[in-house]
Amino acid sequence: MSSYLDSLMSDREKVLQLSRQHWFILFRSILLEITLIIVIFALTITVSLILAESPFLQIVILAGVILLIIPIVTGTRDILVWANHQFIITNRRVMQITGVINKNVIDSSLEKVNDVKMEQSVFGRLFDYGDIQILTASELGVNLFRRIDNPIHFKTTMLNAKAQLENSQAVVVENQPNIPALIAQQAELRRQEIISEEEFQTKKASLLTKI
């Protein structure tokens, strides 16, 4: 887990699932760079062998090294972009984090998730990737996760986390005392003069603090 993600976690919040876009997305992004590296390297070696006795040999090697730096740098950038595009499910919310230096975070509370839609093409089913669309009651309305790896597991984990959160909230509500009923009981005891007015007001104030 990255330190940046750690800083986003609230008290007692834990990560249940961390996913990224499918490796195919990364491969497609760096395919051109890989091809250029192979071509430049091969040309540099070939020309160096031809000009083995030429005074221009060092210039050719230097030019090849300089040309190699360009696809290496752009490929490294693509890898960092892919690695920092994260989809996270916690026990409280679902998040999407993008950006290497400048970060962009979109999150939706599990309580506000109304529906989850998953779309997989033929290739998506073959290579296990797909799009997940999260419909929420927030202002954003829709949160779309594109080309996510193992979308079925991601969707199942999110729905299970939502159900567990709702169950825990229901238990808390059930365990809460019925304050108005308890105050009414105390009022009845006061009416029957079992407790005094002062005792009634003290217990009433104590019960009201629990609301």
Describe the structure in brief.
With 211 residues, the chain is α+β, with helices and mostly antiparallel strands. It has seven helices and seven strands.
Give an overview in words:
The chain has 211 residues and is of the alpha+beta class. Helices cover 55% and strands 22% of the residues. The chain has 7 helices and 7 strands, in the order H-E-H-H-E-E-E-E-H-E-E-H-H-H. It has helices at 3-8, 23-50, 57-83, 122-127, 151-175, 179-191, 197-208; strands spanning 15-20, 86-90, 93-98, 104-109, 113-119, 129-136, 142-149. The strands form 2 sheets. The chain has a 4-stranded antiparallel beta sheet. Strands 5-6-7 form a 3-stranded antiparallel beta sheet. Helix 6 (179-191) packs antiparallel against helix 7. The longest helix is centred in the N-terminal third of the chain and has 28 residues, at 23-50. It is elongated, with a radius of gyration of 30 Å. The mean pLDDT is 86.
Task: Please state how the strands of the largest beta sheet are arranged side by side.
Answer: 1-2-3-4
Number of strands: 7
List the helices and strands in order.
HEHHEEEEHEEHHH
Shape: elongated
Strand content: 15-25%
Largest sheet: 4 strands, antiparallel
- Low-pLDDT segments, ≥5 res: none
Q: Bin the helical content.
A: 55-70%
Q: From the alpha-carbon coordinates, what is the Rg to the nearest angstrom?
A: 30 Å
What structural class do you assign from the helix and strand content?
alpha+beta
* Helix count from the secondary structure assignment: 7
Span between termini = 38 Å
Oligomer: single chain
Average pLDDT value? 86
